Amino acid sequence: MQYYLGIDIGASSGRHMLGHMENNKIVLEEIYRFENKICRIHEKDCWDIDYLFNEVVKGIKECVRIGKVPVSLSIDTWACDFVLVDDKGNRLCDCVSYRDDWVEGMMEEAFTKMDKRTLYEKTGIQFQKFNTLYQLMALQKENPNILKKAKHFLMVPDYLVYRLTSVFTNEYTNASTTQMVNVHTQTWDKEILHTFHLPSDIFHEFMKPGQVIGGLCEDIQKEVGCNMNVIACATHDTASAYSVVKRRNEAILSSGTWSLLGTILDKPMTCVQAMELNFTNEGAYDGCYRFLKNIMGLWMIQEVRHCLNDEYTFQELVDLAKASDCEPSIINVNDTCFLHPENMIKAIQNYCEKHHENIPKTPGEIAKCVYHSLAVSYREALEELSSLCGKKFDTIHIVGGGCKNTLLNELIEEYTKTTVITGPDEASVLGNIMIQMGGK
Ligand code: ADP
Ligand code: LRH
């Protein structure tokens, strides 16, 4: 039996899954799962990247322990965040999360160096205040020496791969979200790097999904007790997730911590309308483009759940919302006040008060408000997508953990008047493994 190990780390959890072929179908088996969350490190909201790396190794060891040694592995994670490494391979900075406020004001400052339209025409990337470009500007401002010492710019999966293999690479799909990659040439945009005083030699030539990066380095081989190939999948989780949907004519919703609603295009769309509606053209696994909109997503319910001391499961919150008979309050989930509030329930209630909506109080009322408001935002995004693409989408294909939310699936059908197709809920890891198998 040939096993392939997909390691998918989302903002809320990471998992190791083994895939193998059986009767012409890929069979997935979950081997290891671990929590991921934002941590306060050196007064910033960060990812605990050393903890994540240790978890990556633990999961590989678990495969070995149960006697299912994979022929290869690949890692995908969320996008936008990075670390810098020096010539000796030492990490020079923490892995700051895209939710930290160090980027405040950077996007506006960026437009004084390169106008918004040029930046969008060149990169096709949406304007989110946490884009890597703006994070690098924040770093430059805070500690210019770090960039001076840096030899390697690595996105999160690139760094984890480096720790496993000692190879420095940049994988294309994840890098495409940085707003520093030219959407037409699919290479680092030299003019952008120059304009923002970024040293071009720290950005490596791209690995494309499917390429073999190398074997495990000696230390890791000793630790896990075997060797295997490390392959670049589409290391952006959303790219891997979208890659499992084969049909091109339906709208796709990758539903997890973020909701990513869009479609696959052969050519990027960088017209003024797409820019004004803040659609993004991210690199897909096959050289095409994921044309989509970022919607705040199930982060809202994850945070509501934490505010309730994790007393309820996701399923219980769905059940409570179903049982609630109040009129749902509707909020704009994409309001920046929901990006990283201290207390999500209070943020929702304050928003409702300010916008003359009924204030949801019970867990059921709050969950109902979130699910209905998400469905409303999907309807709006779908209308925008239709108008930009000049076609009507009759079907939405939902993948990712969020497709297990039956109430939300029903609401999406009701609000968008489309047919909803669901699954797989582990789309990123499946896409990751399919690319390793060379099936893409
Ligand atoms: P990410 O990879 O972005 O961290 P996932 O794809 O793992 O996210 O999806 C996590 C989300 O899936 C949770 O926030 C939760 O809302 C939803 N979810 C998972 N299981 C269930 C369930 N049984 N019922 C309803 N929702 C669920
Ligand atoms: C989803 C995701 C999304 C990015 C965001 C930072 O996990 O990768 O595609 O915009 O995280």
Automatic annotation (TrEMBL):
It holds the Pfam family FGGY_C. The keyword Transferase applies. GO terms for molecular function: ATP binding; glycerol kinase activity; rhamnulokinase activity. It comes from the Bacteria. NCBIfam families: rhamnulo_kin. The keyword Kinase applies. InterPro entries: ATPase_NBD, FGGY_C, FGGY_N, Rhamnulokinase. Coiled coil: none annotated. It comes from [Eubacterium] hominis. One of its GO terms (biological process) is glycerol metabolic process. This is Rhamnulokinase. Gene3D superfamilies: 3.30.420.40. It is an enzyme of class 2 (transferase). Belongs to the FGGY kinase family. Residues 253-437 form the Carbohydrate kinase FGGY C-terminal domain.
